[in-house]
């Protein structure tokens, strides 16, 4: 930890990458100490990127003290405590390994890697002696409604889990959308699957507290087979547009998941529902401040789905940091809440709800890999075999 | 057809069975001619059942002229034009075959049979020379919102179909529910699957106008393994409580289905959503008068899911027979609308939307069978092989 | 009561009028004994109307044994037990008075009369010795959700009532709608006010169990000032298109009401919300099977509006007569539930929830009148002065 | 304007007050230049407050360079360009007048003043030669959904406005809530009325583009008459808990408004609905990213309320500054969007939608005053008389 410039220790942050996620993360690092009382205070030290011109503008906007076009310099910089990696999926592993070797803490975007082998190496590197702590940006865990869902399920409020149902539907992936790295299997690893199913698999594991036992069938399909490049030429779109799969959880609960970028009418429909023996919970990100809950033990005369606005500062996770009741929060707050928990942990405290590290994210990546294997083979795939490689 | 006692020809109806569905059907046969102008008018001729005492009360209540404890007498009775079969699933085939042989029209509850072989024999009997016309009570096709959904998809309003998503979730099947024929595999054939997935598979075929190509994975699971009999003893519950499966439609669209009787909070959550290249449609029976529709060709500034109240007498299927706009209808009206269409067809007219016959219902049963095979084998199952036996 | 032709006494019904409400009522009289076990059984004896031709078709369709073009014959007919009046508002009083004088029971459509004076005379006639019992078709009281709302409020589940908020919004009254009796003040008495506010005022009185203390401001406005007749000529439209008003209830609760036929997007938006010291209830007819309820005494962490599907046969009013849980009912069932309660009362039993009689409906009419006076005078109007005339 | 320290001119901001609104505003001043490309860049210069200790912590947290316990020093400080006033309502006027006299720009919280006379003096001071520009924090105008609502209505998409319906319901004001300045009429001017009706009156004026013609009835009521002080003693609660009123707009449209702090189940239910001859729009802050719109000119077969997620960066106001589609924003973003527009205007540009100044906010205050007069007198109150004083 950098010697304190203020009464509180500083957490000096390096960032690799500067697009959509660079913006979301930079904002979160800046905002967290304004709203939370944290044991360590993040400062934006250096941003690393390829394009010097846009890099400087980015640094100026968000308040990074330095820029570099060579992310390796971060490993060597003793002033940097934590490196935040927001590059395309195939570019997570190299910097992560190098930063861990240098003893830095690493916060990495999801999915952990573009390949399961990469994820395995990252997990192992994180477990090596001298490595810093690791964090993976499964930001939805820290939507207050999802955190509350987790707490209620863990407390037994819905009894034993019987069914898990997740969808992550978007609609921006039609043939009119041009070629991007996200459509290139080499870079992204997969399409809707790694981008969207990654979130709902993580959320299902987080909320139920269970691992997956086996995949019982999957479909992965590419509907849009080529896309236009910036120069007007066409390139093959090599990733899935949709992946659906069925699974059994280790308790015997049944589960289904679907991610698509071609679901007209759904813009960011990240939903998770859990049915248990005593009740159910349901989340939909398009109505992110709300948790739907039904308590099956309530008298049938007045039993019904409850629409819980998760904005009560005293009773709902993270809500106390923000605004008065029902003065709702948005997408970016999940990241800010996560920064707050990272700072808690690095300052010796505890997160409000469990933070995903590389080992945890490896498990999600194994589920995603198993689903793709199931789709290819048309057979049941046991998680044990995939996990062990 | 019976010689007319009134200006309009009479359709004389025999009913086999007298429980929940007996009530729903008897009401529909009585109500349809009050609300629709029909070419033939149904009359309730005879109800057949096992228990003479309750049978007479049933007949008195609904206006059946006769009762019998031997359904075979219906086949021999020249006054009976159509026989309506609402017995448990294993008792559909015998009366259906006998009535068809006797030249009667047959309206049969769904699923067609408790076995695929039974369904095949019923389909073949319906195709034999001299057989009457056949109808299967997939009543949800005639909810105005589902009929409109079908029309919009068939007109191309959502473009090419990409994804199909059906769920039919209920919550009455917990361990506190006593043993019923519905939990006995010998009688019911299956549990939630034949009871609930049957409807959403039929609706998916009806709305898309497509057959299924293959099943790509399935889970069938029994959570509650025994149930209490009326005498306090326990019997094994031998049917599935939940069946989930993935499928490809013949156009290449992906599909998923789930039926459960253990989904707390869902009472009769029969939903179907279709995403196409140009838009999407969504139905939820718990809000049965509404069709949700998004037109992807609309300007993004004012584009959104439209909540269409399908109660406009001039523009929505079946609505003109009922009440002024937004004076909503209920569950029973699907049956009444179906009686109206049966009468239209038997009077030489056309139904508002396609009526399912035995051949049509056989196809649904083949899909259900294929899903169970897929669950058992853990493999992809092509529909062709199942269909052909 | 007519001497019994069956084990149960018959309630012989005469109907005056044969349009929309004639259809709704005839259906209800026919359906109630099929679904409810009633102490007396209604039979459709005679329908009275002006046009002999359509009258016979109406009688044939609904099963009336007789027709007449002179409603006065019903008063003289000893076989008729109850007369149901569904004529335009200005034609309620004359038949009601004559039937009461003849000792018949009278069921009259709402609002009770086109004038408060007429309503007062009707109320007084109903109280005269020898008059039959009276009923007014405020059908929404018998939607299961509204009846449950009444029960919960009366049991104190929302504590003391603080605010009442009712709207009844429709959108069919634009300039393209031709001239009808409903737009003629002589016949209808008022427009949206008597047609729609009548219902929400009745519901507010029924659910809270309170009378109105005073009207604290009102607006009555006609936007469409003339309409096209069938022959192409124009006639003045002399009724309100919208009436809004504020009121104090006798407990000191504040209240607001609005009825409009020009509220685009609302087809039959009959809503009532009550906020109390311990909770709130909310009903919306466009989602008629649902009652929204929030229990303010519940822990804030899991408190939320509950969406109660009022279809539980064991626990929700009237639901037991109909279908399994969440097999929803529609508009017409409110009328059928009311027929069931009328038969209960005339058979010596008790209604599930209070039935409105002429005295009760007079009170609603006095509120409507007070609102119009307040709109005209621009002043507070005490209910006492209006009630006493 | 302060001489530029960076390529862009700086807007140096002084803040008076440091509670809930101090936090919301400080955040907005900090965030706006990160997300918007602005012609002038705000810097937090000085915060003024009474309590030196909490003041320094506040300044440190939000990055104010200076603190003062005497707000008058801001007027004298040439480095301060704009003064932002977030004190209780009775403490808006004095600093506003002094800052305007000193030529500062002033941004003031709503309602403009605790009295109409105060508001009038503020309006007049803003119009004096040499005064800076004025802004009033009616933040909801800049929720994307409300801004879109305004645009659609102004473009004629709903035709002529017929009805306006606003509610602002909260539930935190029960007897268990202790004494606060908000319950003291001397300081707050009014209760729910100035706090909540102020917003919906402003929104109604903004969206319709119309002024109010007259108030046609009002109720103002205090249910909780005393509250506990911090020391355990009781003080009278002298403000309204609820105010409802009816109004006519200058076009002849009818309008109703209700604000309450005692509406169980509503946490921040700020709703506005406008019905026009060709369609309707509806906003509910508890679902703030959504605008409901119905286009009455659409074919009835597929007409329905559209749920527009106002997050499209290309097509929806302010959305382009934030996140990808359906990555929703929250309460605080309305303030940040307003800061962006203030900077646009002070940099010589145009706001995305109209910014309220003191003259504009005076008009809202006159409506609020007229409603209270109407409640007291029980009579119609013409706006002309109130406006002119």
Automatic annotation (TrEMBL), chains A, B, C, D:
Residues 12-128 form the Gfo/Idh/MocA-like oxidoreductase N-terminal domain. The keyword ATP-binding does not apply. Residues 148-282 form the GFO/IDH/MocA-like oxidoreductase domain. It holds the Pfam family GFO_IDH_MocA. One of its GO terms (molecular function) is 1,5-anhydro-D-fructose reductase (1,5-anhydro-D-mannitol-forming) activity. Keywords: Oxidoreductase. The keyword Oxidoreductase applies. InterPro entries: Gfo/Idh/MocA-like_OxRdtase_N, Gfo/Idh/MocA_oxidrdct_glycsds, GFO_IDH_MocA-like_dom, NAD(P)-bd_dom_sf. Its EC number is 1.1.1.292. PANTHER family: BCDNA.GH03377 (PTHR43818). This is 1,5-anhydro-D-fructose reductase. It comes from Saltatorellus ferox. The gene is afr_2.
